[in-house]
Amino acid sequence: MPANNDALVMDEVKIDRTLTRMAHEILEKNRDLEDLVLVGIRTRGVPLAERLAARIKDIEKLEIPVGVLDITLYRDDATTVGPHALLKATLIHFPIDGKKIILVDDVLFTGRTIRAALDGIIDFGRPSSIQLAVLVDRGHRELPIRADYVGKNLPTARDETVEVHLKEEDGRDEVHIVRPGTTSRRTEERAAEKEKKKA
Amino acid sequence: MTPEPGVRLRHRHLLGIEPLDAGEIGLILDTAESFLEISTRPIKKVPTLRGRTIVNLFMEPSTRTRSSFEIAEKRLSADSLNFSVSGSSVSKGESLLDTARNLEAMAPDMIVVRHSAAGAPHMLARACRSIIVNAGDGAHEHPTQALLDAFTMRQKKGKLAGLKVAIVGDLLHSRVVRSNIFLLGKVGAEVHVSGPPTLIPPGLDRLGVKVVTRMETALEGADVIMMLRVQRERMVRGAFPSVREYFNLYGLTEERVRLARKDVIVMHPGPINRGVEIAAEVADGPTSVILDQVTNGVAVRMAVLYLLSGGAGSELAS
Fold first, then answer.
1. Model confidence, pTM
2. Which positions in chain A touch B8 (Cβ < 8 Å)?
3. Which residues of B touch A41 (CB under 8 A)?
């Protein structure tokens, strides 16, 4: 098995500070908070949206609704890429007509996930605006999409992978760049888990 | 966004419940759970099967199942073509295989087939390139009905394993009962069946169910009562003396419902014959989940079409 020599680019403290800064940026840009809602893209956009909502509550003492968006059914490669991703529920239990939506995801890469998310959101109503917040922008866009709030710009090679680990999903807060030919920590952990189950 | 690890059905077609394992059944039910939400949205449509063509080849009359499939296809943005026996070349003597081959020359991606002959979808699966979904073949199987029944039971009871399910009525002509017995057995539910001796197919007990002729015995302590329609159109000769007598012995009345558990649910695959197998006050009563079954049917069929489309052209084709 190839060695794990991925590079740690953000740790817990950095992620924490970054999210606080992003929350302030969101508040600065959106003075009127009445119509603001956050929508996290599954999987890791959801805990990030919840954390941003918690930061905004700390600062402004205002509860911002958080929705969950699964974009699986909106992927433009849904019927051409073989096995489907496991479908999970979309949970947007509030009207979005006339709302200012902050769409939240962990990594912005080609832009195709965001395109799918925009299609998904529009099926729920007509928001007044949609802004995009991402923890990491790694470049290599294939569509004319840019983020309004970026935690960290991370120039990467096309064949590298950016892995975001969050406590809610992975038990710790870290961002890694995984170089080609190496095994990521997440892959190693999954393999170890499988072995454990077998044993 | 990191994609979830890929999952799929091991089968290219859905020909019956018999070849599925509990994991595949669970996958379909879990996927249907997500599709249920789409029917509550202001815009009840997702673009997943855009550009796909699905033929609904119904060689036997059906309103409920065909409409349910059609709505499921439309909600997934597939192009669907309805083909029914009346007014088609079948009435001019064309065989099923020739009809299917002609349809396939128009390059559909899936064919949803209902036929009065058991095994018709299996024959199409061997002869056609399209993905085949069995929407009921003779008295053999009706897999999507069993899946939507299981989905409804799980939705109302929170589980399937350990449930006592009583299936009562015309067991002989029912494809629903066979699919349900296969499915419920795989997920660990206990099935009791009952009906007039003339309407119990021989060898049913070999499928792992308890067969009783006295309806009340089957109902005692049941979590779920599933009534089956008396399919008089399939009976070559009278299987019971009169409708009144049938209702007296096998009709589900409020009094008989009380033999089951307090939180029992009453199901029926429809269409119901009020006053034949079920009393109107039970069909419309608080224990009835008959209309929930119809709603859930669309979500389950969306899940089946979605999951099968992911396996198109796959090396895992059975």
1. 0.87
2. 82-84
3. 1
